């Protein structure tokens, strides 16, 4: 009852009040159940025995452990502890005390003179543990076993199947693998070794190893029998960027983590710590004079330890090697390394996940100086003057993210903005849309000043888009179609044919709703018969949306089939066929076709035979982008809500069910009005002046007149190059520098050429790397373009070697220590 020896402070006793049938009572002394009672009692005991703690006494609440090296010392230590307890009216229960023993159970662990071992009762509990029959029982077993993991060398490996079983959304299945893991843990705990006590007067031995996916180490000391005995085990999987480290860095990281994990033992040792590694290059790492920033940090961390690295071949280091090379770690794939340029991998989405980007945005907010005033305002909003409140009224903080009018603000830090643009333009789910569609996708959830300009430039400078985008030519004036007044009232059909054979498919049936502009894409054969087309219509249109009143069909062989005409007439549908030799009269589907082809060109890459698997994503990308005629995405026009491109943390508002019908009706009226406005705006393409190119400038070449050995021209790049302009023949013709493999005339009409647009944000890729001086990165100064005095201090406008004038920066005098010669010449002038 040690708690009752601690008085409650005067003035705080009312906080312990409790009501009974005899009245209201309050405690005078500390009782069980009070929130801070354990911490208060631990503080009380520490204060009482402060001169004996870690000298001969260890205390956890009311559990007192007295230890000594000799019997004589132990008798004195016991007398000191008992006398202090007696002087403070603290009493021990004799039946719970043991004296002068070399083995004692303390906090669930058996403490021996030689080390630590498991309590037999706990071993028995594990041995008798029944086989789990549900997730809760597995979690209970893992929780109990996890307390004993320090005694099991390969605990995480053995428990991996059980951990996988209790993951969220995992279906319960207790099979052979799970039973073996369960039994393996029970056996390992039953036969757990004795972990020795650490002796600061003896040297420590650290055995480390790293595989492609994990690191392992064992800390040991040599005992009386002359052999190394373990003090503990360490096993960790590589996560995040550490998975991409090379072998040298992974082996070094194993040493770093081991020193961090056992710092209480390894810091300030009397004898040098011997570190065994099977990576021979690490033996000389401490003598290395050249290292990067990461190695510099590691050097600084290890400077506080007295150690030497000794090479030990892998055959002699079996224990840590086994820890790091378990089969459960072998599942981690090696990091991909890009060996070829991006266009070769056009079908890969090399973008950072959106949730990870949002995490980076949280961490980077305070690094953007332009957001400093806004963040300060939100921290002390109540104290801000009215003018500041009005200026920043649209900004809010939620879950660590800064929002502007409900959209996440992206700071101008690193490549965050570019990474987001890659998600909403370069990824397969986006499908390399145009300027306006990309801007609309990004702007749904994100905002930053200049987002439109950045988006337009990103799209214009996208190499993949420049290669595959068709040059625009003039055409006859289009004739607008009759406007529908409801969903799926008018339907357009067309086919994209002559694609590479993918299974039984070589064509795409394109179906468009004239009202919402919603598109359905169906793979099919060019030799599609009338009955087969009717079947596709029933399965993809009729069963979802009913019968259209009118269809607009391309006047091809399949669509013009007499049987198909009769079928439509029998169903009560009035078919309208487009004019011969001018497919744009069915402009609705003909406008969709280039967009679908554009997506497949960007996604299917060089192979071109796997376009069918990209078709669902092409349909999603088209329907998820805002249509210029309606001002809404086809998806929202049809269903009333926008789909998510990727899993996101952005909060969304879901309309109430009662309001949905009213909202949809209003939305469809808006679409009908927008279609009428779009109809009045329809004009033929503008004819502009011919482009002008400078000698040495690069240009794209239209590929339509160049015969290339590809499976399908539909999925082939629409532009070749870029090629350097070597001569201006006239305003209408230029000579290009072509590779020897292109055996064609090198003079081209200017209408076949187009400008190359480059992303300024990526221009650093070809810049010279910085030099390292005294461990710091420095850039070479090419010249000084201007200078000025600010508050008595001189600043110079620096032109950096290998960088454009837009990269010039103002630098103080102290930052230009390695440009003395240039400064002296400037002074002379």
UniProtKB/TrEMBL annotation:
Keywords: Aspartyl protease, DNA integration, DNA recombination, DNA-binding, DNA-directed DNA polymerase, Hydrolase, Magnesium, Metal-binding, Multifunctional enzyme, Nucleotidyltransferase, Nucleus, Protease, RNA-binding, RNA-directed DNA polymerase, Transferase. Its main location: nucleus. GO terms for cellular component: nucleus. Residues 316-339 are annotated as: Disordered. Residues 779-829 form the Chromo domain. Residues 480-642 form the Integrase catalytic domain. This is Retrotransposable element Tf2 155 kDa protein type 1. PANTHER family: PROTEIN CBG26694, PROTEIN NYNRIN-LIKE. InterPro entries: Chromo-like_dom_sf, Chromo/chromo_shadow_dom, Chromo_domain, Chromodomain_CS, DNA/RNA_pol_sf, Integrase_cat-core, Integrase_H2C2, Retrovirus_Pol_polyprotein. It is found in: Nucleus. GO terms for molecular function: aspartic-type endopeptidase activity; DNA binding; DNA-directed DNA polymerase activity; metal ion binding; RNA binding; RNA-directed DNA polymerase activity. GO terms for biological process: chromatin remodeling; DNA integration; DNA recombination; proteolysis. It comes from Rhizoctonia solani. SMART domains: CHROMO (SM00298).
């Amino acid at each position: 009852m040690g708690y009752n020896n601690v008085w409650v402070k005067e003035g705080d006793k009312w906080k312990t009040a409790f009501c009974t049938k005899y009245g209201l009572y309050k405690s005078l002394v500390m009782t069980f159940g009070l929130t801070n009672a354990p911490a208060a009692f631990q503080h009380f005991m520490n204060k009482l025995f402060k001169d004996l703690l870690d000298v001969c006494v260890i205390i956890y609440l009311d559990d007192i452990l007295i230890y000594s090296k000799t019997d004589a010392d132990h008798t004195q230590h016991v007398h000191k502890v008992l006398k202090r307890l007696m002087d403070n009216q603290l009493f021990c229960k004799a039946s719970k005390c043991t004296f002068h023993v070399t083995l004692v159970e303390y906090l669930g662990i058996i403490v021996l003179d030689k080390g630590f071992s498991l309590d037999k009762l706990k071993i028995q509990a594990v041995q008798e543990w029944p086989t789990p029959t549900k997730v809760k029982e597995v979690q209970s077993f893992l929780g109990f076993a996890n307390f004993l993991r320090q005694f099991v060398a390969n605990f995480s490996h053995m428990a991996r199947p059980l951990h996988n079983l209790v993951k969220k959304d995992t279906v319960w299945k207790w099979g052979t693998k799970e039973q073996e893991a369960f039994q393996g843990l029970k056996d390992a705990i039953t036969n757990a070794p004795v972990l020795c006590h650490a002796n600061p007067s003896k040297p420590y031995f650290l055995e480390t190893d790293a595989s492609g996916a994990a690191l392992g180490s064992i800390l040991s000391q040599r005992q009386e029998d002359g052999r190394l005995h373990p003090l503990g085990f360490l096993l960790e999987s590589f996560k995040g960027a550490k998975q991409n480290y090379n072998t040298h860095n992974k082996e070094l990281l194993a040493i770093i983590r081991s020193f961090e994990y056992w710092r209480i033992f390894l810091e300030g040792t009397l004898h040098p710590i011997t570190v065994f590694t099977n990576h021979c290059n690490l033996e000389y790492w401490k003598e290395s004079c050249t290292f990067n920033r990461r190695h510099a940090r590691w050097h600084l961390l290890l400077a506080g330890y007295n150690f030497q690295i000794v090479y030990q071949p892998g055959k002699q280091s079996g224990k840590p090697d086994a820890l790091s090379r378990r089969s459960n770690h072998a599942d981690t794939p090696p990091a991909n390394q890009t060996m070829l340029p991006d266009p070769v991998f056009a079908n890969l989405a090399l973008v950072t996940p959106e949730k990870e980007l949002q995490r980076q945005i949280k961490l980077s907010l305070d690094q953007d100086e332009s957001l400093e005033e806004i963040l300060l305002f939100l921290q002390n909003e109540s104290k801000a003057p009215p003018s500041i409140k009005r200026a920043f009224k649209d900004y809010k903080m939620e879950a660590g993210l800064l929002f502007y009018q409900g959209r996440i603000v992206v700071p101008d830090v690193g490549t965050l903005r570019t990474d987001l643009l890659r998600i909403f333009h370069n990824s397969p789910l986006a499908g390399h849309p145009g300027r306006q569609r990309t801007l609309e996708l990004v702007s749904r959830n994100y905002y930053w000043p200049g987002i439109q300009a950045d988006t337009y430039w990103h799209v214009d400078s996208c190499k993949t888009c420049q290669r595959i985008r068709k040059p625009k030519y003039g055409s006859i004036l289009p004739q607008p179609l009759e406007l529908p007044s409801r969903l799926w009232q008018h339907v357009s059909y067309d086919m994209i044919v002559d694609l590479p054979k993918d299974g039984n498919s070589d064509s795409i049936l394109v179906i468009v709703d004239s009202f919402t502009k919603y598109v359905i894409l169906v793979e099919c054969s060019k030799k599609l018969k009338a009955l087969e087309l009717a079947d596709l219509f029933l399965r993809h249109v009729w069963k979802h949306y009913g019968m259209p009143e009118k269809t607009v069909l391309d006047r091809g062989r399949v669509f013009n089939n007499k049987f198909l005409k009769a079928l439509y007439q029998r169903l009560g549908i009035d078919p309208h066929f487009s004019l011969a030799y001018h497919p744009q009269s069915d402009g609705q589907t003909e406008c969709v076709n280039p967009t679908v082809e554009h997506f497949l060109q960007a996604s299917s890459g060089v192979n071109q035979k796997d376009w069918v698997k990209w078709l669902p994503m092409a349909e999603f990308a088209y329907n998820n982008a805002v249509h210029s005629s309606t001002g809404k995405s086809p998806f929202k026009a049809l269903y009333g809500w926008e789909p998510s491109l990727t899993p996101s943390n952005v909060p969304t508002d879901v309309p109430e069910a009662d309001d949905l019908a009213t909202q949809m009706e209003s939305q469809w009226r808006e679409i009908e009005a927008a279609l009428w406005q779009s109809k009045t705006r329809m004009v033929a393409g503008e004819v502009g002046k011919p482009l002008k190119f400078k000698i040495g400038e690069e240009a794209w070449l239209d590929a339509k007149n160049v015969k290339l050995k590809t499976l399908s021209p539909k999925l082939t790049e629409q532009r070749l190059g870029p090629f350097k302009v070597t001569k201006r023949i006239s305003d209408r013709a230029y000579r290009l520098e072509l590779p020897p493999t292109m055996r064609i005339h090198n003079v081209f009409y200017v209408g076949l050429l187009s400008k190359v647009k480059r992303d300024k944000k990526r221009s650093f890729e070809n810049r010279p790397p910085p030099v390292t001086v005294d461990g710091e990165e420095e850039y070479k100064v090419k010249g000084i373009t201007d200078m000025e005095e600010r508050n008595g201090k001189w600043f110079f406008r620096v032109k950096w070697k290998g960088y454009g004038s837009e990269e010039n920066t103002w630098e103080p005098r102290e930052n230009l220590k390695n440009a003395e010669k240039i400064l002296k010449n400037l002074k002379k002038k």
